[in-house]
Description:
One of its GO terms (molecular function) is methyltransferase activity. This protein has five helices and seven strands, in the order E-H-E-H-E-E-H-H-E-H-E-E. By secondary structure, it is of the alpha/beta class. A hairpin with a 5-residue loop joins strand 6 and strand 7.
Amino acid sequence: MRGLDTPTRNIRLLHVGCGTSEVGPKLAEEPALSSLHVTDIDSSPTAVRLMRKRHATLGNYECREGDVLNLDFPAGRFDAVVDKGTLDALLCRSAEDALAMVSEVHRVLRKGGVYVQISAEDPEARLELLTECGSSSGRGPWSRSIFKELGESKGSTAYYMYVLVK
Length: 166
Ligand SMILES: C[S@@+](CC[C@H](N)C(=O)[O-])C[C@H]1O[C@@H](n2cnc3c(N)ncnc32)[C@H](O)[C@@H]1O
């Protein structure tokens, strides 16, 4: 008989703008997360080629070329989305693109799914942006948002983790 806490399907995690980061493969390799399937995407064909070559033997991991402004996945596909520095990078170019990315992430998450951001942007600016995204209620399309300061890197930049629940 199946245990109560045994998931009946894979947990699907999307890492947006993966570059050549080991975050996705490390999560896929984690024994405690055996039901996890990780999809890495990046717009750089070079990064995608390299990640595919490096991690070809991981059965629950894939890396695809893709655009975070127009994600090639159906609505509600993922349980979790991880973003480490990608929204920060987009914000340097255009606030419009950053908002488009947040709404695409929201679309591909299932209800109750989580969007985890690792960012150098301070909460005052970031929470305003996230609230702005598609908001008519004044709270944005997320049911909950939490942030935590992760400490400072060598160059004394502070890092934050933002967790948004759809
Ligand atoms: C700051 S890097 C972060 C890389 C990785 N997450 C890490 O932590 O090392 C931003 C990444 O986003 C990718 N990127 C930028 N615009 C993108 C877009 N529109 N669609 C998909 N990826 C994009 C870049 O190619 C780059 O790899």
